[in-house]
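Sample intake — MRB1590-like C-terminal domain-containing protein
Collected from: Blautia acetigignens
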Amino acid sequence: MDLRYIEQLIDREQTQALGGLLKYAVEKLIDGKRTLPEIVEILCDRLEKEDMSFLAEGYISCGYAVPRRQEIYACFNRYRRP
């Protein structure tokens, strides 16, 4: 997925976090019933309450920066399922 034209992304830690969020959403949230705004809202709520730890189910290495809502939408907008 090409994220280089998302001007707000300034470091790879944000990109790594977006990758983790996308993977989590694909595996656990995208079910054909939820809308994209609902999925992003769930992710943002979990980020606010649990930081990035919910992505790794308890343990997460350092090197992640929490992305903003707009960046999450931009990432999902560019994602194409194989």
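Post-analysis note: Residues 17 and 65 are 6 Å apart (CA to CA).
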